[in-house]
Every structure is written in structure tokens, then in C-alpha cells.
Amino acid sequence: MKVMDGGVTAAKGFQAAGIYAGIKKDKKDMAMIYSEVPCAAAGTFTTNIVKAAPVKWDMDVVYNYQNAQAVIANSGVANACTGEEGMAYCKDTADTAAELLHIDPKAVLVASTGVIGKQLPMVPLKEGIRKMVPLLSGSKEAGTLAAESIMTTDTVKKEIAVAIEIGGKTVTIGGMCKGSGMIHPNMCTMLSFVTTDAAISKEMLQKALSADIKDTYNMVSVDGDTSTNDTVLLLANGMAGNPLITEENEDYKLFLEALNYVNTCLAKKIAGDGEGATALFEVRVIGAWSKEQAVTLSKSIITSSLTKAAIFGHDANWGRILCAMGYSGADFDPEKVDLFFESAAGRLQIIENGVALDYSEEEATKILSEQEVTAIADIKMGKETATAWGCDLTFDYVKINADYRS
């Protein structure tokens, strides 16, 4: 696998654009992704009962139509809790893009992120679509502009691309995402768009995506709030020319491995860019007797506000981690738990068999002062593992969310 410098335009036949359309104040706020040929489309969506109109539109396209060819995304307004008007906005957006791109409106996917409850300003949005179509390009720069144009409270763009060989052909997978707050397992306030030139059936594409989000986007938490707009879309246009993947063979395994790398990288970028965050906090639970047990424990630790605050303070307050494991609902023996902290500054065991060791607080603080910090909990019950990602909880998180709408 070769990691590339790029994003959604890295794969053959994909173009993108990103602009300022006037939905937000003086920031790029609209993006477009377009494939030169129709794509097999897969998607996963928020588990929140309150679903934004774009989520409902995309679910219909992904589940009931064979192909998609374009994505229109805006930031600034979520088009959530907007009633019948919200669905009409989606149709109007798709109709406008379809007319300009000469494709079927049901081949257009739409996505929105931003403030809930506000009506989508259709005049600048439709004008934005008209501006973007002539700007579509397969360049790396165009992909980056698109990645920047879906940001809300994100502080950095998030994109990644990889290349692998399948059936003697080079297959590329590229992606971009946004997400910084209202982030919680079972997807988050995130939009993720992944493109590939792999030839793969719609059924296998959906199977691959549905399997992979369990260990990637669903293992991220920033603040415990599950959004109304979470969407992951995966488009495959087949232009790599590899033998069509229609079953779980070796080619499928290679594709799934590369997809996992892309989604893991994007998920970690979301966690590390949590609102106000100063550190990416990774939790690995090892020695579990089942995958479910490991997932439950790792998620409980990563969502503990007290633990996240301790990470911000570079404080090796291991009691908070053991406490979070204890109320997770997963059964384990706390008197067998070993706990380690690890970062670029080193690795240190904090407790053994549930009891504190005579460790150096100074060394622990040094390890916890890095920008990426890992806690490893070994519960010594089996061979299963799980990894979750989050961030520290800072003063700035409250500041950002106290005046988000202004």
C-alpha cells in the first residue's frame, strides 16, 4: 500500500471544487465532487432518530438507486429540523446540479453541516452550484479546496489517499471528511466522502463500508453528542479497470484493508481536531474475551469527561480510567487490570493487577504532555482488542460551543 498526498481527486475520473458561496461569513462553504462516469454508491448514516433532510435524501439514493455521480455539500447550515421545506431544498439542490452536469437528479447526493433549525439559503446555494461546475478539476488542489469548504469548527482540513494493486491494476482510494464537535460513537457530526476507481459491485461496496465503520468512525468520540447529519458516502467508478469484485475473495480483502487505512486516518483526524483539543487521546483495550467487551470498555474510557480532563491536565489519574471501565456495563476483574500510558515521549506502566505501581509522576506528566497520547488497558481475559479515539476536554471546548451560532 502506498500512501499518497491527496484526497477525493486522487482516484481516476474524480473531480472536485470548493468555493465561498455566501452561506457562511467570509469562509469557503460549498464543495462538489463529480465522477466522469456513474458510480456504485454505498453509505452509512446517523443513528440519531432526528435525521436531517440530506440524510433522508441520501439514504433513498443509496438504498434504492443503482448509481450516483455527484455530491453537493454545504457547511454553515445543517438543513436539519426544517420540515417539508428541508426535503424540498434537497430536491432543488439535486435538480440544479443534475441540469448543469447532465445527469439524473437521483444520481446527486447532498450533504449539509452547521447550525440545526435554520432554513437553507437556496439563492446562494444554487448560485454556488453554478459557479462550481466550471471549476471542477481532478487536481490535488481542487480536492483540497473541497476539503476546506466543508469545515465548520474544524481547524484543519482532513484528507488522505492510498494506492494498492488489485488484479494487476493500480487502484486508488481517496477521502476527505469534516468533524470537530458533536462527535460520539455510532458516527458523529461528521461528513466523510470517500472515492475510489476500484471496480466493485454495489453490494460488495456497501458490505465493505458497513463492516469498516465499526472499527473506524464508530470508535470516535469528542463530546458524547450524536449528530443529526452524520453521513459517510463511498463512491466507486470502476475506472481502475481491475476485475470486478463481486465476492469476498483476495481482491476484496485487499480493497477492505486499504479502505480501513483511509477511514482510520480520517477518524483519527476528527478525534485529534476535537473542538478546543490539544491532544489526540487513543485508548486500546487488549486481552478481552470478546470484541464486544473490548469495544464497550474502550468507548467508556474515551467518553469519560473526567478522564478527558485529566489528559488535558497531563495528570496520570488512572482511577478515572478504572472507574469508567467499571460503569461501562462490561464484565471484567478490576484486580487483574494492567494500565499503561504511551506517547512519543515513552511508555510507562501505571497499575498492575489493579494496584498502582511506584511510578514517576514526572515521567507520567512528560508522556501525557505529547500531542498524541495512548492509554492501554490489559484485562487479561482473552485475545480480543479494540481501539477508540477521542481528545482531551479543554476550556476552549466550552467557549466554542457557548457561542457556536454567533
From TrEMBL:
Reactions performed catalytically: L-glutamate + acetyl-CoA = N-acetyl-L-glutamate + CoA + H(+); N(2)-acetyl-L-ornithine + L-glutamate = N-acetyl-L-glutamate + L-ornithine
Name this protein carries in UniProt: Arginine biosynthesis bifunctional protein ArgJ
Subcellular location, record wording: Cytoplasm
Family in the record: Belongs to the ArgJ family.
Keywords: Acyltransferase, Amino-acid biosynthesis, Arginine biosynthesis, Autocatalytic cleavage, Cytoplasm, Multifunctional enzyme, Transferase
PANTHER family for the chain: ARGININE BIOSYNTHESIS BIFUNCTIONAL PROTEIN ARGJ, ARGININE BIOSYNTHESIS BIFUNCTIONAL PROTEIN ARGJ, MITOCHONDRIAL
Family matches, as Gene3D superfamilies: arginine biosynthesis bifunctional protein suprefamily (3.30.2330.10), ArgJ beta chain, C-terminal domain (3.10.20.340), L-amino peptidase D-ALA esterase/amidase (3.60.70.12)
Protein EC: 2.3.1.35, 2.3.1.1
SUPFAM superfamilies: DmpA/ArgJ-like
Organism this protein belongs to: Robinsoniella peoriensis
Entries under Pfam families matching the protein: ArgJ (PF01960)
Pathway annotation: Amino-acid biosynthesis; L-arginine biosynthesis; L-ornithine and N-acetyl-L-glutamate from L-glutamate and N(2)-acetyl-L-ornithine (cyclic): step 1/1; Amino-acid biosynthesis; L-arginine biosynthesis; N(2)-acetyl-L-ornithine from L-glutamate: step 1/4
Site positions (Involved in the stabilization of negative charge on the oxyanion by the formation of the oxyanion hole): 113-114
Task performed by this protein: Catalyzes two activities which are involved in the cyclic version of arginine biosynthesis: the synthesis of N-acetylglutamate from glutamate and acetyl-CoA as the acetyl donor, and of ornithine by transacetylation between N(2)-acetylornithine and glutamate.
Tagged with keyword Transferase: yes
Source organism, top-level taxon: Bacteria
Binding site for substrate: 152, 178, 189, 275, 401, 406
GO cellular component term, pick one: cytoplasm
Catalytic machinery residues: 189
Principal location class: cytoplasm
Molecular function GO terms recorded: L-glutamate N-acetyltransferase activity; L-glutamate N-acetyltransferase activity, acting on acetyl-L-ornithine as donor
Keyword Transmembrane attached: no
GO biological process, alphabetically ordered: L-arginine biosynthetic process; ornithine biosynthetic process
Assembly and oligomerization: Heterotetramer of two alpha and two beta chains.
Gene that encodes the chain: argJ
